[in-house]
Design a protein that fits this description.
Layout (H helix, E strand, L loop, with lengths): L1 H21 L9 H8 L3 H7 L3 H24 L5 H18 L1 H7 L10 H15 L8 H21 L4 H15 L4 H20 L28
Pfam families: TetR_N
Keywords: DNA-binding
Protein name: TetR/AcrR family transcriptional regulator
Length: 232
C-alpha cells in the first residue's frame, strides 16, 4: 500500500527534475545521472519508472498536452456546436504557444498528440458530433483527427520560431482547419470570428459563469497575448 502511494510522487519528482534541466541553460547536461541527482533518488528508482531520458521527455509531452485540455475544459466544454469547439480549442492551443514557450517546446513532440491523449480523444468526438449534425463532411474521422493533430503541432512549432503577424497567422490557421472539416466559407468565417471573440471574453473574465483561468493564462493580457484582445 505505502509503496503504491509513493510511486506517483516519485515519478513527479523525476519528471520535474528533467523538466528543470531541459529548460535551463544547462539542457545539454540532461542525463539519467543528472536527473537522479536533481530528484535525489537512486538509479534503481529511476528505472522503476523510466528506462531512458527520452521516455521522461515523452512523458512530459503527454502530461503537458493532457493538462492543457484539463485546464481549458471549464470554458471549452460548455460549447455545443462542433465548429465552435474545434475553432476555440485550436486557437487556444496556438495562443498558449505565444504565452508559454516552455510548454510549446514539448507539445511540438508527437507524444503530445497521440491517440491516447485527451486532446486526440476530444477532437475525435467533436468531429464525430460534427458529422452526425451535418456540420462536417469528412470521409474518415480518424484521418481528420490525425490531420488536425499534425497541423496543431506544426503551427505551434512555427509560432515559437517566430512569424511576422501572429494574429493573422492564427486566424488563417483556424479558417483552414474548419475548412478541412468540409465546412463552407460562411462557417469558416463564423468560426474564426467566434473563436477570437470568445477568447477575448474569457481573457477579460466576461464569459457567462466566469470559468477560471489557469496559471499559465494569467499573463494573457500581456504584450504577447494581448493581440487578440484588440484585434478588431
Amino acid at each position: 500500500m505505502t509503496k503504491l502511494k509513493r510511486k506517483p510522487e516519485t515519478r513527479k519528482k523525476l519528471v520535474s527534475a528533467a523538466l528543470k534541466i531541459y529548460t535551463s541553460d544547462d539542457y545539454k547536461k540532461l542525463s539519467i545521472d543528472e536527473i537522479i541527482r536533481q530528484a535525489d533518488v537512486s538509479r534503481g528508482t529511476f528505472y522503476n519508472h523510466f528506462q531512458t531520458v527520452e521516455e521522461v521527455l515523452s512523458a512530459i509531452s503527454h502530461d503537458f498536452s493532457d493538462q492543457m485540455v484539463s485546464d481549458i475544459l471549464p470554458m471549452y466544454d460548455i460549447l455545443k456546436e462542433p465548429w465552435q469547439r474545434i475553432s476555440v480549442g485550436y486557437r487556444l492551443f496556438l495562443v498558449r504557444a505565444l504565452l508559454d514557450r516552455k510548454w510549446a517546446m514539448f507539445v511540438t513532440r508527437h507524444e503530445a498528440w497521440e491517440e491516447n491523449t485527451l486532446v486526440s480523444s476530444y477532437v475525435f468526438k467533436d468531429i464525430e458530433l460534427g458529422k452526425s449534425k451535418g456540420n462536417f463532411c469528412v470521409e474518415s474521422t480518424e484521418a481528420a483527427t490525425d490531420f488536425l493533430m499534425g497541423a496543431s503541432a506544426k503551427a505551434i512549432e512555427r509560432l515559437i520560431q517566430g512569424v511576422e503577424n501572429p494574429s493573422q497567422y492564427i486566424d488563417t490557421q483556424v479558417r483552414m482547419i474548419i475548412s478541412s472539416m468540409g465546412c463552407n466559407s460562411e462557417i469558416c468565417e463564423m468560426a474564426t470570428e467566434f473563436s477570437l471573440t470568445y477568447l477575448r471574453h474569457w481573457a477579460k473574465g466576461t464569459l457567462q459563469g466566469k470559468p477560471r483561468k489557469p496559471n499559465w493564462a494569467r499573463n494573457i493580457e500581456s504584450k504577447e497575448g494581448n493581440y487578440f484582445l484588440n484585434n478588431d
